[in-house]
Write a structure and sequence with these properties.
Helices cover 5% and strands 39% of the residues. By secondary structure, it is mostly beta strands. The protein has one domain: Deoxyuridine 5'-Triphosphate Nucleotidohydrolase, Chain A, CATH 2.70.40. It has a 5-stranded antiparallel β-sheet, with no helix packed on it. Strands 1-5-9-7 form a 4-stranded antiparallel β-sheet. Strands 4-10 form a two-stranded antiparallel sheet. The termini are far apart.
């Protein structure tokens, strides 16, 4: 499966870092560093533009190392890039740490995961079928 990409950044294309990787690391494309204050957020541009076939989406997900070590994550996780979007890929980063974080040009800030999707038809009904679980949710099956 392939996706068309325009790279207007000064960095290499995203790539899978290992054979078993699900996501491709994406880099910040900046003219100047961006500082994100504690509990602050910023839209970080990548210089990348995608063209996907209908039936695909690109999810923007956090990088686990940034989340654990620096408290930096993707605010709208997972961010969705729809197949018909042709604008620049941007990543909304949020700083959940107590220290200002500086995003540098070329820094790996998130990962892109491509997923197959289906559009469905919603059918309005008055009653849903019964299940053993029923309406139980939000911890109803236990927390251990």
């Amino acid at each position: 499966m392939s996706v068309n990409i325009i790279n207007k950044s000064k960095h290499e294309l995203p790539r899978y870092e290992t054979v078993g990787s699900s996501g491709m690391d994406v880099r910040a494309n900046l003219d100047a560093p961006i500082e994100i204050a504690p509990l602050g957020r910023a839209l970080v541009k990548t210089g990348l533009f995608l063209e996907m076939s209908p039936g695909l989406e690109c999810q923007v997900r956090p990088r686990s190392g940034l989340a654990l070590k620096k408290g930096i994550t993707v605010l709208n996780t997972p961010g969705t890039i729809d197949a018909d979007y042709r604008g620049e890929v941007g990543v909304i980063l949020v700083n959940l740490s107590n220290e200002t974080f500086c995003v540098e040009d070329g820094e790996r800030i998130a990962q892109l995961v491509f997923c197959k999707i289906e559009q469905i038809e919603l059918i309005q009904v008055n009653v849903l079928s019964e299940t053993d679980r029923g309406s139980g949710g939000f911890g109803s099956t236990g927390v251990n």
